[in-house]
User: Which sequence fits this backbone?
C-alpha cells in the first residue's frame, strides 16, 4: 500500500526530467500528485479517467437575455402574489362594528 501511495507523488523536477514515466503512472493509478517544495501543486490523471469522471458533467450556462427578463417578471409577480392574512377575530370585530 505504501508503495502505491509513494508512487503517486512526484516533484516538479521529476516531472520535468521524467515526463514520460510520470505520464505512464497516470494510466495505472487514479491520480498522480505533483509536488512543489513538498506541497501539492497539481494533479495529473489519464484522459480515460478524466472522461470517466466528467461524463455526467454539465457545464453551467449563462442565461440568455430573454431568460433574465422572464426571471425578473416572475419575481415581480411573485411580490404581487403575497396575500395579507386577516385574523378571524378582526373580521368579526369589523362585522360587529357595521351593525
Assistant:
Amino acid at each position: 500500500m505504501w508503495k502505491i501511495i509513494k508512487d503517486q507523488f512526484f516533484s516538479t523536477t521529476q516531472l520535468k526530467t521524467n515526463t514520460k514515466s510520470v505520464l505512464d503512472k497516470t494510466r495505472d493509478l487514479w491520480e498522480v500528485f505533483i509536488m512543489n517544495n513538498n506541497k501539492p501543486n497539481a494533479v495529473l490523471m489519464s484522459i480515460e479517467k478524466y472522461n470517466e469522471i466528467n461524463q455526467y458533467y454539465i457545464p453551467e450556462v449563462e442565461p440568455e437575455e430573454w431568460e433574465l427578463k422572464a426571471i425578473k417578471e416572475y419575481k415581480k409577480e411573485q411580490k404581487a402574489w403575497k396575500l395579507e392574512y386577516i385574523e378571524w377575530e378582526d373580521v368579526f370585530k369589523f362585522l360587529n362594528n357595521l351593525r
User: Anything to note?
Assistant: The longest strand covers residues 39-44. The chain has a mean pLDDT of 80.
